[in-house]
Amino acid sequence: MATYKLFVSDMDGTILHNHTRIAKETAEVVREAEAQGIRFAIATGRNYFNAKEILDEVGLSCPIVSSNGGRVLTETGEVLHEIDLTTEDALKVVSVLHQDHKYADVFYEMYSEAGLVASRMDLIEAAMENLKQNGDDRSLEMYEFFRKRYYVNEDVKLVEDIEHFIQHEAGRVYKFIAFSSHFEKMSALWAEIDEQVDGVYVTSSGDDNIEVMANGADKGHGVTKLAEHFGVDLSDVVVIGDNLNDVPMFEVAGKGIAMANSHEELIKISDHVTERHDEYGVAKALKRVMNGEWK
């Protein structure tokens, strides 16, 4: 019988069978775990509303650590914790991103109290074309993801003057995420933001992106807040993920499980490695925790 009390899963590359959905089979295993007394939660870089929409599609209701720890909400949407970028730091991040001579093919999104926001549609179109031309599986998967985001669902607000938007309309700014299929530019952008903006934490959920939050907005802090809310000791928490932005929650939890498709640095610090995200790796790991195989 399982002894762990809280199981927290990342989304992309982890519980999502692809970039858009949770498999029904996985959702059933989550419900089995909850029936055994194991609480289930999500910790993701995605914004809260997008994460909740994906969970709703398979009938799951659970707490969500969103924006990499920028926001922590209960299953009913009650905010337990929020930490946002200062206006000054948000503007500094934008100033680095807008150096077109360096980052001409990089586009970015901003998660804010006013919703998911993007600027410079020309950069988005250029990046989309690069993804399409690359032709590898990851690029084509990302191309389809962004095509639906911008041209089908249209769930991103486009603004002409993002500096003005940050100062007057955004409200709280929780996160920036920047994308490029030119991996060396992602590394350079990471280093430059890290050096020039003091109040931020920079991480990544893949070689083709970087994520920027306020210091203290990470999945480790988010999982800790959830555990405190439920009165669960961190030693009784299991986390599962696939990339560098999952490292902070691996560092605080009693058990860390990496996906077979994980970044090598995450695998190094994991207690166990489960199957790939497209091989029901989360469901299989959760079953092993439930039956006591992974104690």
From TrEMBL:
The record's section on InterPro entries has:
Cof (IPR000150), HAD-like_sf (IPR036412), HAD-SF_hydro_IIB (IPR006379), HAD_sf (IPR023214)
Quote one Gene Ontology molecular function term.
hydrolase activity
Q: Which UniProt keywords apply?
A: Hydrolase
Record carries keyword Hydrolase: yes
**PROSITE patterns under this entry?**
COF_2
Origin: domain of life: Bacteria
Pfam families linked to this entry = Hydrolase_3 (PF08282)
Q: Entry's PANTHER family?
A: 5-AMINO-6-(5-PHOSPHO-D-RIBITYLAMINO)URACIL PHOSPHATASE YCSE, PHOSPHOSERINE PHOSPHATASE
Instruction: State the name under which the record lists this protein.
Output: Cof-type HAD-IIB family hydrolase
